[in-house]
């Protein structure tokens, strides 16, 4: 089926019930205010077409999808070798916030940049004059690649994250002790909590997806990141983007994707489409339960899986 013939309204309707199988995140108290039944989608193609349905205009915080953005900027700032000397490229098989392998792994570094430990290390590598400048650079980069100049943080979510982020803090201090975080650990955590609190819609997320799908080129065809960085990001999205259900997700959906506990999923159909989902009801692994089912239906209809 062609994208223009896809009945997104019907697919949303069919999957809305699945939101009952999960729950909104509540470990960051502000996130528990989301509406569990919400389900929205935006799909963008290379001809400038935009197809949206459901709650695609609802704002939510980007959460772990920001790890993809921070990774691109950290590689631009420091080079691939520097970044991956300090963070691995392997799936951990553990939940996103797991701490246990930090000490037991012989690698001596977080498994990958998509789990919290790896992402905090990556955020510590963003360059800038001071913490304010570092976060401003990250936000500006996100605005540039998503071509959305309206992006800003949700201060309530940021404070809620920062006040309750004890596990993230403990990982940050451990990474500092191991020499993986070089600068001030509280500053690295501030950047990480702030990047997770950036407010987006499914449209923003679809634009991010299209940027990655187009190997790091913007809508004018200008190269912002190299095809090599884009390939690294896409590969890590496939192997680690959905945490300890990345394998099952790859079988069901078969697209490079990254989830966030705010309910977002970005999915990439290489050289073709960017897909943004909003689905705040999460499964036990912290992934959007109805959003995954919706993506599976779309891949069945469009036959756009990459494997
Ligand atoms: O660090 C945290 O726990 C959150 N700010 C982000 C986690 C997240 O989005 C995991 N994704 N499903």
Description of the structure:
The protein has helices at 8-16, 66-78, 80-86, 100-104, 116-123, 131-146, 155-164, 166-177, 185-196, 202-213, 227-240, 246-252, 289-302, and strands at residues 40-45, 50-54, 60-61, 199-200, 257-259, 264-269, 273-278. It has 307 residues and is α+β, with helices and mostly antiparallel strands. It is globular. The protein starts with 7 loop residues before the first helix and ends in a 5-residue tail after the last helix. The chain has a five-stranded antiparallel beta sheet. It has two domains: 3-63 and 198-302, DD-peptidase/beta-lactamase superfamily (Beta-lactamase); 64-196, 3-Layer(aba) Sandwich (Beta-lactamase), CATH 3.40.710. Bound molecules: 6-diazenyl-5-OXO-L-norleucine (DON). Residues 63-64, 96-97, 116, 161, 168, 196, 259-261, 286 line the site of 6-diazenyl-5-OXO-L-norleucine.
How many domains is the backbone divided into?
Answer: 2
Average pLDDT, all residues: 97
Q: Can you list the ligands bound to this structure?
A: 6-diazenyl-5-OXO-L-norleucine
Alpha-beta content class:
alpha+beta
User: Which fold does the CATH topology of the largest domain refer to?
Assistant: Beta-lactamase
Write down how many β-strands occur, each being a DSSP E stretch of 2 or more residues.
7
Which architecture of the largest domain would the CATH scheme give at its second level? 3-Layer(aba) Sandwich
Classified by CATH, the class of the largest domain is Alpha Beta
Number of helices: 13
- Radius of gyration in whole Å, from Cα? 18 Å
N-to-C CA distance: 18 Å
């Amino acid at each position: 089926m062609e994208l223009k013939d896809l009945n997104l309204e019907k697919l949303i309707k069919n999957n809305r019930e699945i939101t009952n199988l999960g729950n909104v995140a509540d470990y960051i108290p502000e996130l528990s205010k989301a509406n569990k039944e919400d389900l929205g989608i935006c799909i963008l193609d290379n001809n400038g077409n935009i197809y949206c349905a459901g709650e695609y205009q609802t704002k939510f915080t980007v959460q772990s999808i920001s790890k993809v953005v921070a990774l691109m900027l950290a590689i631009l700032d420091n080079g691939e070798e520097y970044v991956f000397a300090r963070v691995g490229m392997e799936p951990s098989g553990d939940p996103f916030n797991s701490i246990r392998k930090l000490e037991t792994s012989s690698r001596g570094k977080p498994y990958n940049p998509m789990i919290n430990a790896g992402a905090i290390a990556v955020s510590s590598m963003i360059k800038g004059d001071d913490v304010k400048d570092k976060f401003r650079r990250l936000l500006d980069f996100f605005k540039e690649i998503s071509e959305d100049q309206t992006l800003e943080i949700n201060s309530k979510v940021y404070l809620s994250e920062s006040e309750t982020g004890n596990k993230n803090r403990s990982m940050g201090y451990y990474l500092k002790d191991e020499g993986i975080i070089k600068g001030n650990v509280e500053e690295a955590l501030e950047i990480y909590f702030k990047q997770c609190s950036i407010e987006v819609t499914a449209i923003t997320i679809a634009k991010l997806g299209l940027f990655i799908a187009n190997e790091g080129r913007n809508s004018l065809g200008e190269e912002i990141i190299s095809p090599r960085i884009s390939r690294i990001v896409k590969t890590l999205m496939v192997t680690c983007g959905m945490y300890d259900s990345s394998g099952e997700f790859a079988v069901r959906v078969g697209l490079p994707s990254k989830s966030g506990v705010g309910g977002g999923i970005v999915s990439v159909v290489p050289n073709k489409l960017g897909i943004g989902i909003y689905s705040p009801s999460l499964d036990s692994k912290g992934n959007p339960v109805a959003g995954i089912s919706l993506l599976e239906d779309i891949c069945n209809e469009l036959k756009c899986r990459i494997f």
